[in-house]
């Protein structure tokens, strides 16, 4: 028999009456009268051409046909419930993630690692926005919105997770150590071009840079100010790799290039300047993230922790 021709309300009334063993109790659960349940069960019996209950003075009881139908209906309802649960889980797992982050961080640290995550997680579409903003983003619309900010915090109205504390140190191309003037001590920087990175101060934050590093190294009166200034870490890094000067870098930006040998630290691990800046992951404080987005957050935090352990030898905060 085609299910479209079956009275679904009658099926529901029958299932409740069969489960409760009483038209009256079933009526209470369904919010109708016992007479309504009786009529709907009778309608189903007429459609099937068989009795489902034995009726007697003290109430009703399922007969053999009724017990078999009740078992089949319960099995079908379990399958429907499982299907609904699976559909909800698929909808929760399939999500769109929008992530805004500083351009150089995206290019130099996140993108080389992101392919591994995407290969392990299906159902997540990732949209990346290169953004140098130092403020908490205004999140609107659908989809999961996350942000990575390079700043000092605090970050009001969101949940923040520390990815990397910041420390600055000079880097340059190996060729710069092999030609021209020596570069063994900070005072030797007087004979080299300094590549500086600084964002516009219109957002009200002063970024630590060469002047602070030179002062901490005790040579601020011996070395001229930086000769070349860039708005992005990546631009300055390209110039340093090309051998055009010495850049003040941090671990997330420089470490992969240091490991590959295309950059070196001319003073080794000496003369490191602790910075008040940090890379923080910002997550909206309200609502739960879809499953795949939650996995991205967990992956990112674990990847950052592993990177710190590898590059800082356990010295990370």
TrEMBL record:
It comes from the Bacteria. InterPro entries: LysR-type_TF_proteobact-type, LysR_HTH_N, LysR_subst-bd, WH-like_DNA-bd_sf, WH_DNA-bd_sf. Signal peptide: none annotated. The keyword rRNA-binding does not apply. Keywords: DNA-binding, Transcription, Transcription regulation. The keyword Membrane does not apply. GO terms for biological process: DNA-templated transcription. GO terms for molecular function: DNA-binding transcription factor activity; sequence-specific DNA binding. Residues 6-63 form the HTH lysR-type domain. Belongs to the LysR transcriptional regulatory family. This is LysR family transcriptional regulator. It comes from Billgrantia pellis.
